[in-house]
Amino acid sequence: MNQNLATLKEAFVTSKHFYDDLNFPRGFSRSGHFTLQESDVLENHGALLKSLYTKASQPQNEFQRQFVDVMEGRQTPSNVMEKTWTKYLKLTTCKTKFHTLFGRSKVETNKEEVEAVAVEADDEM
């Protein structure tokens, strides 16, 4: 299947622009996570990609059917649309892990300090 960008843009044409102010309030291009090409794909085709992903609309051509197959895990991402939407999903749905330098968080450290002060106060009485 010919998968150049012009053909893909024609296959995923939509009049709606896609924005995600919750996760990317300054826009996709300013987030630092997406290239200019990826942010262009999301802004101009993201509404259709989202509706295909959520099954709100049915695929209309072979490229869209392939996109649905990729999102259902039957194929691996092979074009810009699929790779960009997969990257978007990874950034918006996967929980990030927080690692501290010393292996303990401030919450745990503060809790231990409060408990130590409480024990000292009990000993003084």
Question: Quick summary of this structure?
Answer:
With 125 residues, the protein is mainly α.
Would you write up a description of this structure?
- This protein is mostly helical.
- The protein is 54% helix and 0% strand.
- It contains 5 helices and no strands.
- The protein has helices at 5-11, 36-53, 62-71, 80-93, 106-124.
- Helix 2 packs across helix 4 (80-93).
- It starts with a helix and ends with a helix.
- The mean pLDDT is 84.
Write the layout of secondary structure elements.
Elements: H1 5-11, H2 36-53, H3 62-71, H4 80-93, H5 106-124
Helix pairs in contact: 2-4
How far the N terminus sits from the C terminus, by CA atoms, comes to: 81 Å
Percentage of residues assigned to helices = 40-55%
Count of β-strands: 0
What is the tally of helical segments? 5
- Rg from alpha-carbon coordinates: 23 Å
The ordered H/E elements are HHHHH
- Major sheet: size, sense and barrel closure? none
Overall mean pLDDT: 84
Share of β-strand residues: under 5%
Shape: elongated
Category by helix and strand content: mainly alpha
Short key terms for the protein model shown above:
mainly alpha, 5 helices, 125 residues, 0% strand
